[in-house]
Request: fold
Amino acid sequence: MKKTLIIYSTTDGHTKKICNYISEKLEKNFRSKIISLDKSKNIDLTKYDLIIVGASIRYGKHKPELYSFIQRNQAHLNSIDSAFFSVNAVARKNSKSSTDTNPYMLKFLKNSNWEPKSLAVFAGKIDYSKYKVLDKVMIRFIMWLTDGPTNISNVHEFTDWNRVELFCKALINKE
Reply:
């Protein structure tokens, strides 16, 4: 059975939730391990047949640690079966929900020099109750500017779990 490493970079936990879902969907075909990007520095990537990296966006950027990880491991990541997905609220809009149209995916690919074999973009979640006061105000303002949800008493999850499942099926079918 193939071994898969799923690495996540999350701000509020939703990307980790997506990674757990992916791991469950892959479990019949892959033995998966999920770790935080923060704990990936000393892991031996050569022990895995497939490496999946999922990263969230906050204020238009992936965390700098994501780029450091890729730079350190770029040769290996490009030499094996690898996948990357970005999680962001912009992907809630159909016109920005594909790997070819999502501005954060395009920026990531340009800046990382990594060539994952599989790519995906998933819409994230806005949970105002989890945000500090300044984040709550800023994110609400950004949502107002982009015609997103501004009701701070609701959780707004945009993730299309069918898309996540299709991503998993494509990874399994590559096997």
Observations:
- The helical segments are 14-26, 64-79, 103-112, 133-145, 161-174.
